[in-house]
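Worked example 3 (structure in, sequence out).
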């Protein structure tokens, strides 16, 4: 027996390196495919990304002593992406810095989410990767909330490790959560609540799981009451629309409703397969289903806007951000379903339509930003510039911060919001010639309701003339900044 076993061992272990190489090639190939939307346009269109790269440039000016009135402060959270972007800015310049930093953020999120889905479903449900990709390039991505985005990806890595905890896994998860906190505290707080729920659920057993869920919802309602009485908050019934996570694919205009409804249909069909395989009672009392329920309840119950003491602007879009976490929890639940072939193809079709719409809209936004770059380039260096061109049909802030990136290395985006909020590491400590020091003034400039003062001039405004051509105009003290409205993105069907 012993000789036979010894001869079998090398034969069984021989394919292992080859298998690892194939697995490595598979993950590398998929990673490259997942990064295509980061490189398919001349510029990344991701809302606040323009502000982040502009502030990376401001940080460089501060360090060189050319930004009086601005300082870099020490803080422990909401800084990881900015630190990464600033470091890359110094090494490779603004364009490459944005591509690399966002690429790393995307891979962190996608593979963190996939690791969590695999841990919950106890297999590798590759057919759900298109869903993860759609959510990864959805509303949060296009708002440019990359500190939050990276933090949530790292939290999913940690949750995957802790789904079946071991000592080494716990240590690794703790390290990941520490890094996630440096990126953004909100996902870490959410994951901490989920981990506490999992710990309690495994102790009370399935029989008492309903009571535990009810207590969790009651605690969320109690927390909302406390927050509402102690802080300035905002809550809306409309938050129920973001409790599934599918809303992440509603990126820009109403045409994305088609993708949203198609995605919900595919998820619904997979859920029916789950009910058929496991039965209603077993499914409802499973931990994956419970995580979806309490996460969705939190998104609906807790306020979506909270003014945290010490900040000059509120932490906004809490529900809309956390719907991304709910969406990944839903995908993890559906990972236990056995999809039919036509359901797999249906998922791919929905993803294809989504990315075609995103490509088309990002192309239009790039054309608009190209015009802005050309107009800004006509100014002498070091001028103050604002833009209050708005598209009220957009769900994201696609135009709001576009002027920030156009000003990198050329001019000063006077309305840039980061230094005046006290939420970021770049702070305006006194009135200065680079950016307004009060957040209320920043908001008014962006909305076009600000009346220029003597200290604000000379200043220029990006505007549109009567023919719709982009121009740049000087503004005078005592005049209203004003707004210009237009529809920038094409409709679902082009005009004939």
């Amino acid at each position: 027996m012993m000789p036979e076993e010894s001869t079998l061992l090398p034969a069984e272990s021989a394919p292992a390196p080859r298998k690892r190489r194939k697995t490595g090639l598979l993950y590398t190939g998929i990673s490259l495919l997942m990064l295509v939307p980061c490189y398919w346009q001349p510029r990344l269109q991701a809302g606040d990304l323009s502000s982040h790269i502009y502030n990376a440039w401001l940080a460089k000016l501060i360090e060189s002593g050319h930004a009086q009135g601005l300082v870099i402060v020490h803080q422990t959270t909401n800084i990881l992406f900015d630190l990464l972007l600033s470091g890359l800015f110094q090494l490779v310049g603004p364009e490459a810095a944005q591509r690399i930093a966002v690429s790393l953020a995307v891979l962190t999120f996608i593979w963190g989410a996939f690791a969590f889905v695999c841990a919950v479903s106890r297999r590798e449900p590759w057919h759900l990767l298109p869903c993860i990709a759609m959510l990864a390039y959805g509303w949060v991505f296009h708002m440019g909330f990359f500190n939050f985005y990276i933090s949530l990806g790292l939290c999913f890595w940690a949750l995957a490790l802790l789904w079946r905890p071991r000592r080494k896994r716990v240590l690794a998860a703790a390290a990941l959560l520490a890094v996630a906190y440096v990126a953004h505290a909100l996902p870490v707080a959410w994951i901490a609540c989920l981990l506490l729920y999992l710990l309690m659920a495994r102790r009370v057993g399935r029989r008492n799981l309903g009571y535990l869920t009810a207590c969790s919802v009651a605690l969320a309602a109690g927390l909302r009451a406390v927050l509402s009485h102690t802080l300035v908050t905002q809550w809306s019934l409309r938050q129920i629309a973001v409790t599934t996570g599918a809303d992440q694919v509603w990126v820009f205009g109403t045409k994305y409703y088609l993708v949203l409804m198609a995605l919900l249909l595919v998820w619904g069909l997979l859920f029916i397969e789950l009910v058929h395989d496991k039965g209603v009672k077993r499914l409802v009392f499973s931990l994956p289903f419970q995580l979806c329920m309490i996460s969705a309840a939190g998104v609906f119950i807790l306020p979506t806007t909270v003014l945290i003491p010490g900040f000059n602007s509120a932490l906004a879009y809490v529900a809309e951000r956390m719907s991304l976490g709910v969406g990944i929890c839903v995908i993890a639940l559906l990972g236990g379903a056995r999809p039919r072939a036509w359901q797999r193809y249906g998922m791919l079709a929905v993803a294809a339509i989504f990315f075609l719409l995103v490509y088309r809209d990002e192309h239009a936004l790039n054309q608009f930003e190209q015009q802005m770059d050309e107009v800004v380039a006509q100014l002498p260096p070091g001028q103050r510039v604002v833009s209050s061109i708005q598209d009220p049909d957009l769900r994201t802030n696609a135009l709001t911060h576009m002027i920030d990136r156009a000003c990198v290395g050329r001019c000063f985006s006077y309305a840039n919001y980061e230094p005046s909020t006290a939420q970021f590491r770049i702070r305006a400590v006194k009135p200065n010639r680079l950016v307004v020091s009060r957040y209320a003034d920043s908001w008014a400039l962006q909305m076009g309701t600000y009346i220029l003062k003597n200290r604000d001039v000379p200043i220029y405004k990006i505007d549109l003339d009567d023919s719709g051509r982009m121009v740049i105009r000087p503004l005078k003290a005592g005049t209203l900044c004003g707004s210009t409205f237009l529809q920038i993105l094409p409709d679902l069907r082009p005009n004939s």
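Notes: The longest strand covers residues 459-464. Residues 448 and 483 are 5 Å apart (CA to CA).
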